[in-house]
Amino acid sequence: MKQVVVHPERCVGCMQCMIACATAHSRTKTLFSASCEDPLPKPRIHVGAGLYGEGFPNRCRHCDPAPCMLACLPGAISRIPETGTVRIDPDICINCASCAMTCPYGVIRFHEDASAPPGKMIAVKCDNCHDRQKAGQIPACVEICKSGALTFEEMDAAMKRKTDEVARTVSPDARKVPEAPGVDLLNAVKKAQIGMRKI
Ligand code: SF4
Ligand code: SF4
Fold first, then answer.
1. Residues 77-95: pLDDT tens digits?
2. 1-60+126-198 belongs to which CATH class?
């Protein structure tokens, strides 16, 4: 089963994933009209800034077992077996925040949402773009990310590729091998910021 894999070393902090995510979870599914909706659609992936301003895309890991699911007393959180997706049912959620208190990654937010009854505050987090996947599409954040920081692939294949990338990096001829997309740009930004701090 394919999953969204995060490669934080490639993130350039452009936040395009956040915009694409909010649009994908809007009523109208287009950026222009989504920006006029009430409630305003919000992203379920959040890009944080590191020490040097470098980006880190933080999203639900769909843990197994999932602490949020264990903490949810009304049973609003369940797993979709076909995809492994941990999903929150907006009709059952009572907005008690028990899930957010147990999530180690701080990825659950509380607000009104297009999927919830009008005016109801609910717990909201990444749903792996379940509806898009059912329609044969990949998650919106992956589709928009041009630096390769988010990929949608089989976990075994991702781990093998990662191991190969690390192996090439420690190889004596590593300098001859082009770096992964985004790494050059990220390194340039970091060096510039470090240089600016010394001035
Ligand atoms: S919300 Fe947090 S605890 Fe629940 S599955 Fe996602 S990462 Fe894990
Ligand atoms: S806020 Fe909603 S999803 Fe979270 S634990 Fe409470 S009822 Fe469950």
1. 999 999 999 999 999 999 9
2. alpha beta
